[in-house]
């Protein structure tokens, strides 16, 4: 009789634990805080930046960066999964937009050389910059953004010289 009660108690504890796992398991598998959609435009001298990359770097220690490709002036952020947005908080923002000759880079890589190779680095440096280089660094870009716990559309950046 005592063994039966102990067994029932264990079953209840196991079932309760499984229920908690199911309820808590409804989030995503990344283990990160909830992310919220972030999208907007990037323009330079009033025109959409054709292609590039935008990065949101958290100002708080331990934060998680988010980034996205810029296409025809528009971007959407990703932290862990495509289009999942960013964790709420304050960010410094960088923009890298260059037009490089990928065929030249592929030719260099074909010879077994990699991104740390001098020829590869020279080819990247010679790429045409679509926006001023100051926007590539958090120290010099001057760009900031605040991501709120909501959909963040219209987070736009107008770049100048």
Structural class: alpha+beta
Sheet of most strands: 4 strands, mixed
Number of helices: 4
Shape label: globular
Helix content: 25-40%
Strand content: 25-35%
> How many runs of DSSP E, i.e. beta strands?
10
Radius of gyration: 23 Å
Summarize the helix and strand pattern as letters: HEEEEEEEHHEHEE
List low-confidence stretches. 11-26
Summarize the structure in short:
By secondary structure, the chain is α+β, with helices and mostly antiparallel strands. Helix content is 27%, strand content 28%. Strands 1, 2, 5 and 10 form a 4-stranded mixed sheet that branches. Strands 4-3-6-9 form a 4-stranded antiparallel sheet. A two-stranded antiparallel sheet has the order 7-8.
Describe this structure in words.
This protein is an alpha+beta fold and 161 residues long. The chain has one domain. It has helices spanning 2-24, 102-110, 118-125, 138-141, and strands at 39-44, 47-48, 51-58, 66-71, 74-76, 89-96, 98-99, 128-129, 143-147, 157-159. Strands 1, 2, 5 and 10 form a 4-stranded mixed beta sheet that branches. A hairpin with a 7-residue loop joins strand 3 (51-58) and strand 4 (66-71). The longest helix has 23 residues, at 2-24. The radius of gyration is 23 Å and the shape is globular. It starts with a helix and ends with a strand.
């Amino acid at each position: 009789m005592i063994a039966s009660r102990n067994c029932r108690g264990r079953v209840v504890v196991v079932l309760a634990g499984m229920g908690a796992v199911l309820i808590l398991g409804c989030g995503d598998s990344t283990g990160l805080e909830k992310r919220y959609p972030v999208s907007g435009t990037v323009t330079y001298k009033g025109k959409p930046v054709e292609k590039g990359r935008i990065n949101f770097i958290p100002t708080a220690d331990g934060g998680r960066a988010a980034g996205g490709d810029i296409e025809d002036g528009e971007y959407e952020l990703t932290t862990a999964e495509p289009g999942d947005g960013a964790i709420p908080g304050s960010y410094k923002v960088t923009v890298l937009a260059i037009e490089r000759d990928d065929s030249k880079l592929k030719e260099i890589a074909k010879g077994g050389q990699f991104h740390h190779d001098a020829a590869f680095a020279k080819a990247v440096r010679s790429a045409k910059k679509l926006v001023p280089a100051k926007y590539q660094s958090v120290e010099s870009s001057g760009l900031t953004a605040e991501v709120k716990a909501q959909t963040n559309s219209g987070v736009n950046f107008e770049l100048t010289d």
